[in-house]
C-alpha cells in the first residue's frame, strides 16, 4: 500500500460513479481521475454553471470516461429527493457513491429545512441521499459508499441540541461536529449493511490538508493551505477507498505522512468519540427523524 497513486486505480470501464460537490477541489480531482480510468461519472453539483464548466473541463481532459451533470443542493431535502429521482432515470445501478461535498465554517446559516448549515449539508444531506439511492447501490455487484471526514473530527462531540441552530453558533465546533458525524455515519452504515448481508460496503476518507476552496471562510487556513497538497494528491485516500481492492469495508483512509497531513493513502486514526456506538445509533435515528428518510433499520 506504500505510494498508492491514481495510476493504481483499477480500470473503471462500465462503472457508474456518483460524486457530490464534483465541480471543485477534491470532488473535481476525484471525478477527473475516475474518468481517466474509464468510469461513467455523474457529477452532483448545486450550481449549474460551475457544474457545466467543470464537466466540460473533465470531458476534454479524460475522453476515456463519460461525464454527466445532475443538480443536487444538499442544503435542501427537496433537492436531494429530486436528485435521487433523476438518478433513477439516468441509471439502473450505482457502483460508487462518493459523499464528498462540504462546507467549512461559513457564517451562520440554515438549510432550507431549518438545520444549521454544516450539519445539514455535510451530514444530514448525505444521510438522506444515501438512503434514497440505496436500491441503486444494491443493484450493482459490489458497490461502495465513501464519505468524507476530516482530521478535525478528533476532539469533537455530537451536540444533538445544536442541529437546528438555536444554540450559540461556534463555526469551528459545528464543522468538527459535522465531520465526526460523517465518520460515525460511514462506520454505522457498514455495520448496518453487514447486518443486512448487503453487497454494498461503506468507507470513510480524509484528505489531510489539501489546497482547495474549502478554507475560503478562514483567513489563517486559507494562508496555511497554500503550502498544502494539491487536490489531485489530496483526493488519493477517497479514490483508494472507492476503488482499491485492498480497502477494508468500514475502513477510514487518509494521507500516511506526518500527522496525516500529507502523503499517500494509509489507514487513518479514528478518534475516540467516533467509536461510540451508542451515540452513533442516536445519530442515525436523529438523521432519520430530521430527514424523514429511513433505511437499514
Ligand atoms: N481541503 C481540505 O484540506 C479538507 C480537509 C478535510 C476534509 N475535507 C473535506 O473534503 C470535502 C471536499 O472539500 P474540498 O476541500 O474539495 O472543498 P471545496 O473545494 O470547497 O469543494 C466543496 C464542494 O462541495 C460543494 N458544496 C458545498 N455546499 C453544497 C451543497 N449545499 N450542495 C451540493 N454541493 C455543495 C461545493 O460546491 P460549490 O462550488 O457550488 O460551492 C464544492 O463543489 C469536504 O467534505 C471537506 O469537509 C477537506
Which distinct ligands sit in these coordinates?
NADP nicotinamide-adenine-dinucleotide phosphate
CATH architecture classification name: 3-Layer(aba) Sandwich
- Strand content is 5-15%
Biggest sheet descriptor: 8 strands, mixed
CATH fold naming? Rossmann fold
Q: What structural class should be given to the helix and strand makeup?
A: alpha/beta
Detail the poorly predicted runs: none
Please tell me what the overall shape is. Answer: globular
Classified in CATH, the superfamily is NAD(P)-binding Rossmann-like Domain
Number of domains: 1
Helix content, binned percent: 40-55%
Query: What Rg do the Cα atoms give?
Result: 17 Å
The SSE string, one letter per element, is EHEHEHEHHEHEHHHEEH
Query: Spatial order of the strands in the main sheet?
Result: 3-2-1-4-5-6-7-8
- Give the count of helical stretches: 10
CATH class: Alpha Beta
Averaging pLDDT over every residue, what do you get? 96
- Compute the separation of the termini in Å: 35 Å
- DSSP, total strands: 8
Description:
This protein is α/β, with parallel strands linked by helices and 297 residues long. The protein has one domain: 3-Layer(aba) Sandwich (Rossmann fold), CATH 3.40.50. The protein has ten helices and eight strands. The protein has helices at 25-36, 48-61, 77-90, 117-132, 134-138, 171-195, 219-224, 231-234, 236-243, 277-291; strands at residues 16-20, 40-45, 66-71, 96-99, 144-148, 201-205, 252-255, 265-267. An eight-stranded mixed sheet has the order 3-2-1-4-5-6-7-8, sandwiched between helices. Helix 3 (77-90) runs parallel beside helix 4 and helix 4 (117-132) packs across helix 10. The longest helix has 25 residues, at 171-195. The protein is globular and about 50 Å long. The N and C termini lie far apart (35 Å). The mean pLDDT is 96.
Amino acid at each position: 500500500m506504500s505510494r498508492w497513486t491514481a495510476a493504481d486505480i483499477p480500470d473503471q470501464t462500465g462503472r457508474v460513479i456518483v460524486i457530490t460537490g464534483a465541480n471543485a477541489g477534491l470532488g473535481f480531482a476525484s471525478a477527473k481521475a475516475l474518468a481517466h480510468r474509464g468510469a461513467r461519472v455523474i457529477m452532483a453539483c448545486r450550481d449549474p454553471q460551475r457544474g457545466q464548466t467543470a464537466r466540460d473541463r473533465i470531458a476534454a481532459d479524460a475522453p476515456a470516461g463519460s461525464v454527466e451533470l445532475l443538480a443536487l443542493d444538499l442544503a435542501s431535502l427537496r433537492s436531494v429527493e429530486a436528485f435521487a429521482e433523476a438518478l433513477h432515470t439516468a441509471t439502473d445501478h450505482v457502483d460508487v457513491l462518493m459523499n464528498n461535498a462540504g462546507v467549512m465554517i461559513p457564517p451562520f446559516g440554515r438549510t432550507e429545512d431549518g438545520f444549521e448549515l454544516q450539519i445539514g449539508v455535510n451530514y444530514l444531506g448525505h444521510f438522506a441521499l444515501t438512503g434514497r439511492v440505496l436500491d441503486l447501490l444494491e443493484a450493482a455487484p459490489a458497490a461502495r459508499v465513501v464519505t468524507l471526514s476530516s482530521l478535525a473530527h478528533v476532539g469533537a462531540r455530537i451536540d444533538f441540541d445544536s442541529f437546528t441552530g438555536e444554540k450559540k453558533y461556534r463555526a469551528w465546533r459545528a464543522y468538527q461536529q459535522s465531520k465526526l458525524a460523517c465518520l460515525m455515519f460511514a462506520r454505522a452504515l457498514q455495520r448496518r449493511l453487514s447486518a443486512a448481508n448487503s453487497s454494498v460496503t461503506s468507507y470513510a476518507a480524509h484528505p489531510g490538508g489539501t489546497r482547495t476552496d474549502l478554507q475560503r471562510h478562514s483567513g489563517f487556513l486559507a494562508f496555511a493551505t497554500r503550502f498544502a497538497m494539491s487536490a489531485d494528491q489530496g483526493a488519493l485516500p477517497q479514490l483508494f477507498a472507492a476503488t482499491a481492492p485492498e480497502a477494508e469495508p468500514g475502513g477510514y483512509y487518509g494521507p500516511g505522512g506526518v500527522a496525516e497531513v500529507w502523503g499517500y493513502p494509509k489507514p487513518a486514526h479514528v478518534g475516540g468519540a467516533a467509536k461510540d456506538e451508542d451515540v452513533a445509533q442516536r445519530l442515525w435515528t436523529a438523521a432519520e427523524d430530521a430527514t424523514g428518510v429511513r433505511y437499514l433499520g
